[in-house]
Amino acid sequence: xxxVTAAQxxxxxxxxxxxxxxxxxxxxxxxxxxRKGFETxxxxxxxxxxxxxxxxxxxxxxxxxxxxxxxxxxxxxxxARAVVRWVDEHPGPISDMVAGFSERVEQLQSTGLTRRYLMxxxxxxxxxxxxxxxxxxxxxxxxxxxxxxxxERAMTRGELAAGNDxxxxxxxxxxxxxxxSLGAVGYALPMDDAVERGHYRxxxxxxxxxxxxx
Amino acid sequence: xxxVTAAQxxxxxxxxxxxxxxxxxxxxxxxxxxRKGFETxxxxxxxxxxxxxxxxxxxxxxxxxxxxxxxxxxxxxxxARAVVRWVDEHPGPISDMVAGFSERVEQLQSTGLTRRYLMxxxxxxxxxxxxxxxxxxxxxxxxxxxxxxxxERAMTRGELAAGNDxxxxxxxxxxxxxxxSLGAVGYALPMDDAVERGHYRxxxxxxxxxxxxx
Lengths: 214, 214
Known about the structure:
Tetracycline Repressor, domain 2
């Protein structure tokens, strides 16, 4: 699945319309959920925005949860997989990888739509544990495992001190990024300013490299 | 205000009963909120549990928000202030302080009631930003500032490398603790096992001290 804008989803013939339907529904749901929240937005509002009946929406997405999951897939899981691929293919040195990872996470966290989803997911994680579960399974866990592999390769190349648990290193490296994404929902001390976040990330990356220098 | 158990709140005379009333209400609300959540639990259920009318509850706590705040004050803010005092009075060395801080946070995070409140606060932060605001103002901010002061003193004593921003150090030191408390609500990768958390905290404390060694 690919992210499409409303302008790209203007089919003309009857067959084209039917094929474009799931994308139209996703585009309308994205806009509606981002504006009203997962809980408040209703499936019939999605249907009305697309100009179809509610059963037509349910034909493609059998529940609101499945619709939310399809959106999270496009807007969070796909970009996260691109970061994981980049980490897996990074030849080193590790200092370049951690700095580049930091920039890529910032891109994810500062993009309006992703930032809104992170906030929504956090706000509604209590009522919708399947959202938290999806992010954990599709975004966080693959990211941590890719980082651990990268740290392990860097130990083998002698760029990091040998003998540390790479998964604990990955978790530790990731903690401040979680903290800055939480800032948006107000539970942690907020760090909404991108310059301030950049400063903090650079400070963190340097400290991490010092802590695990050979 | 002090935390009291139900057994301690059995007043006998009419005057004693009136004086004990706020404590009885808090004890009943604590039990009810922890069981049903801040959102679902109703003020008339609190009243029923104490055996008084709803207006009697409102006489002491003019809104549910004020009642929640009184509970968070006793169960989170007071213990947090004790940790802050301990940090402020710690003479060093800094390695002892960070290890001791880590143990104290673990005590807070693993205590059933506090852990339940952290989970509740996270679950309902989206709907009740005043809860997130209270925790930020009364728990997180004072803790970070106390840590920053301690790191600054340790730099002066020559126990940490000079020239680093103590507030950024405090934020960085705190990130993994936030991460382990979040684990409970399922948004971060869970770390519900106390032994696993202890292992992670020790790993983090050692890495932090290496990163900022003189």
